[in-house]
Each structure stands twice: as C-alpha cells, then as structure tokens.
Amino acid sequence: MAEITAAAVMTLRNKTGLPMMDCKKALQETGGDQAAAVDWLRKRGAQIQVGRGDRETAFGRFGIYASLSEGVGAMVELKCESAPVAATDEFIQLADDLAKQLACGPGAATADELLDQGSPGQSGTTLRARKDDMFNRIREVFNVGRFVRLNGPCSGYSHNATTVAGVLVQVQGSAGDQPVRDVCMHIAAMRPQALNVAELDPSVVAKEREVLTEAARKEGKPENIIGKMVEGRLRNFYAESVLLEQSFVKDDKVTVGKYAEQNGFKVEKFVHWVLGDK
How far apart are the C-alpha atoms of 31 and 20, rounded to whole Å? Predict the structure, then answer.
C-alpha cells in the first residue's frame, strides 16, 4: 500500500471539503490516487445518502428567478433537515440556481429531470452533483419539493422570517419591477386564496354561502331578503379572500387590482407557497 502523507490528505481535503479521516480512508482505498479518491468519496456519499433518504426535511427555502424583461419566472422549493443549513450561502445559492435553470433552461417535468441538468455558472457539473457534494460535506439530506415555471413577465419574493414563503407573480403590461414586487409582498402578507372571484374553489364559496345564510336566519331575517343579504355579505368574503379584491397593504384606499391598473399592469396569475404546506 502506498504511503499516505499528511500533505496528500490535506490536498484531498481542500478539493472536497470532507473530514480528514474520510480523505485518508479514500486515499488508502485507492492507493493514493487523488482523482480515484474523489470518485470513491462520491460513491460512498451516495451510499450513505440512500440510507438516510427517509429523514424528515422540514426546513428549507424557495429559490426564485423572475424577470419582467425576459418574460419568464420560476420557483423551486429546496428542503433540508435543519434551519442553520437552510440559512447558509451555499444552500441559498443552490436553491436560486435550481430556479434559474428551470426558468432559463429547457424546463423539467420532475425533480430528477431538473437535477440532471447543467448548473448555471458552473460549467462541467450538474445541479445533482452540487447537491450530492453538499450532502457529502454536511451530511444532511436535501430534497427538491414543489417547483413551477411561468412563461410571462414575472416578479418574485421570498420571505424567510417567522414563516418561509415564496411568491411568484406573472403580469401583463409595462410595469416597473417595484410595483409588481410590492404585489408579491402583499400576497405573502395577506395570503389570498385566488386571483379573482371566478378562480375561488366553488366548494369554499358554497360553504361560506351556507354559513352566511344560517347566520341570517338566526338573526331572524325574512326568507325573501336572505338571498340578497348573503350576496352582499359574500362581497366582504371576496374582499378578504381574492387578491384583486383585497385592500392593498401599502394603501388601503385602493384594491390590489386598482393599484396594478394605476401602475400600468394587470396581474395574470400568482403562485404562493409556504414551506410545510401541501
């Protein structure tokens, strides 16, 4: 067996970021061949990762890439095992690069398809290789959860304080980035259920109508006016639940729909995800 020097171990350690003892073991197993040792460490890491695949990944963040000028936007949920790891620069960069590749690349139908694509800004490697290298060094499981791509002018917002949320908004019209981003932030704060009344879940509206009808009866209202009362009260429900009908958080004198109109754009669709929600 070739002698494994401390310098050789340190060289491998600098290449991989893995613990010294792991690097020494890899060099011993490969006769001191640095390239073979790197490959050995990757394969060993893959084996360990399989064994830990059922660990809970309850933390993470949303990577977002959105551009009004390029006419595209994407959001990717990247999950991990602990909050400190989710806050590292490396984790944040991987989440953002996943979103950028989804937005600017050929698209992807599955997480595996996305991970096997090239990594933005790092030629010669894939997003999966970066994820696996992170696992090798940090020994936490990383999973790609939900992801979406919108083909139209977009802006986005990621909230990472008390809750971890991601918002992607697609618009039509000539708008500056800040007004659209303001709508993204409004969505994160107010959590609308739908873009407009027509897009509300019919079962949710039916349930609300039933509750309001029963409340009106308990108030002793005549049957012949209950229907009109309920429809009037439903408007308050819409003002709370529908994005375009909500009062804008930065100026409650106008609705979000009116604010968008005043700033030269129309909201076409939005995606709002909170980490941990189904």
Answer: 16
| Distance in angstroms (rounded) separating the CA atoms of residues 91 and 78 | 8
Query: What's the alpha-carbon Rg for the chain, to the nearest Å?
Result: 25
Does residue 240 surpass a pLDDT of 80? Answer: yes
Express each pLDDT in 32-73 by its tens digit.
888 887 777 777 777 666 656 568 889 999 999 999 999 999
Phi, psi of 125 (to 5 degrees): -140, 160
Token pair listed for 251: 């100026």
Pair of tokens at residue 247: 């009062």
Domain extent, residue 231, equals 201-241
In a domain, 253, yes or no: no
CATH of residue 130's domain is 3.30.479.20
Cβ–Cβ under 8 Å, residues 244 and 269: no
Question: Mapping DSSP to helix (H, G, I), strand (E, B) and coil, where does residue 165 land?
Answer: strand
* Angle in degrees, CA 73, 75, 79, rounded to 5: 165
Q: Quickly count helices (H) and strands (E) in the chain.
A: 11, 10
- pTM for the model stands at 0.79
More confident residue, 275 or 52: 275
User: How far lies 165's CA from each of 168, 184, 189, in Å?
Assistant: 10, 11, 10
Give the type of residue at 137.
Answer: R
Q: What is the pLDDT of residues 192-217, one digit of tens each?
A: 999 999 999 999 889 988 888 888 88
